[in-house]
């Protein structure tokens, strides 16, 4: 078992602590949080060991799980890596691209592994269709959330949209060519609603919408590709897969047939991929343990997390263009 420590005992930090404590791949050594009152409360309520000094915790673990505010990601990651510790770091990887690129270089130098917490990669609905998404040419995403003061210190792009940015970058086999975007601040000092259009060199276009002041929650992505339409509902853990193939010579009574202007006939049919329920956060943490133990590449590498941040920051910069 890998010895692990957690930095940060806020809302998400407590979830990580609980899951690491029950995991058979980790031994939870303890946690550190600069808010001593909150830390003592968490330690008393759940029985986790609270370390008053972050360096003492670092010296006792193999892996450090960074669930602190984004502004502190770089310094905590740097400190952990320089002590030779593998790092799991929540999204976004860091506050700036320079910081992210430095983390990558430090990890290479000290020969440690890193994974970024882009949890939607482990959503059971996405896992059910990931292999079916092949060279999509148009993608549409909607990630809408009811207002919650937690997280409003950063633009909605880094708070919500970055999830969809990472998923899109993982399925589009091409480099980003152009970004157009607009963002509006309604309640916060940073944009609460954003729309972005990402054009890729291979012709694929992705249209992303994110809002944190909606009346209802929604997390849907739609992928359009040659002879297929795939819809993923990340919130409801549901998928739709609609495909087309050449129509049979003699269609059946219930076959759905479409004919285009050129006279070509296509049969529409539906697939129902099996969705295997899981705990996505536990899965991302445990696959990182597997990557360390087996010396394989993590599912969401530091490089992947950096690319998602690069596109997210480009979208924010495009607000002013």
Automatic annotation (TrEMBL):
Pfam families recorded: GFO_IDH_MocA (PF01408), GFO_IDH_MocA_C3 (PF22725)
GO molecular function: nucleotide binding
Protein name (Swiss-Prot/TrEMBL): Oxidoreductase
InterPro entries the UniProt entry points to: Gfo/Idh/MocA-like_OxRdtase_N (IPR000683), Gfo/Idh/MocA_Oxidoreductases (IPR051450), GFO_IDH_MocA-like_dom (IPR055170), NAD(P)-bd_dom_sf (IPR036291)
Annotated Gfo/Idh/MocA-like oxidoreductase N-terminal domain residues: 2-118
Domain GFO/IDH/MocA-like oxidoreductase intervals: 156-216
Source species: Croceivirga radicis
């Amino acid at each position: 078992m890998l010895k692990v420590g957690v930095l940060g005992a806020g809302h998400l930090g407590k979830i990580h602590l609980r899951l690491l404590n029950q995991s058979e791949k980790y031994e939870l050594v303890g946690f550190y949080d600069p808010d001593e009152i909150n830390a003592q409360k968490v330690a008393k309520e759940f029985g986790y060991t609270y370390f008053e000094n972050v360096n003492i915790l670092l010296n006792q673990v193999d892996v450090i799980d960074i669930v602190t505010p984004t502004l502190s990601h770089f310094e905590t990651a740097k400190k952990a890596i320089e002590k030779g510790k593998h790092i799991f770091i929540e999204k976004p990887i860091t506050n700036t691209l320079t910081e992210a690129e430095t983390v990558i270089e430090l990890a290479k130098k000290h020969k440690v592994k890193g994974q970024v917490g882009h949890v939607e990669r482990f959503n059971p609905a996405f896992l059910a269709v990931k292999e079916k998404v092949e060279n999509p040419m148009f993608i549409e995403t909607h990630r809408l959330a009811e207002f919650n003061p937690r997280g409003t210190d950063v633009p909605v792009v880094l708070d919500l949209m970055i999830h969809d940015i990472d998923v899109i970058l993982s399925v589009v086999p091409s480099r980003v060519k152009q970004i157009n975007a607009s963002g509006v601040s309604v309640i916060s000092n940073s944009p609460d609603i954003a729309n972005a259009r990402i054009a890729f060199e291979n012709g694929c276009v992705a249209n992303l919408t994110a809002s944190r002041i909606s009346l209802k929650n929604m997390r849907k992505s739609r992928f359009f590709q040659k002879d297929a339409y795939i819809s993923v509902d990340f919130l409801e853990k549901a998928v739709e897969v609609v495909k087309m193939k050449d129509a049979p010579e003699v269609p059946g009574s219930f076959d759905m047939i479409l004919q285009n202007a050129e006279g070509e006939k296509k049969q529409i049919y539906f697939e129902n991929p099996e969705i295997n329920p899981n705990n996505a956060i536990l899965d991302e943490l445990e696959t990182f343990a597997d990557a360390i133990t087996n010396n394989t590449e993590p599912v969401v590498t530091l490089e992947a997390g950096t690319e998602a941040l690069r596109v997210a920051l480009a979208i924010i910069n495009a607000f002013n263009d």
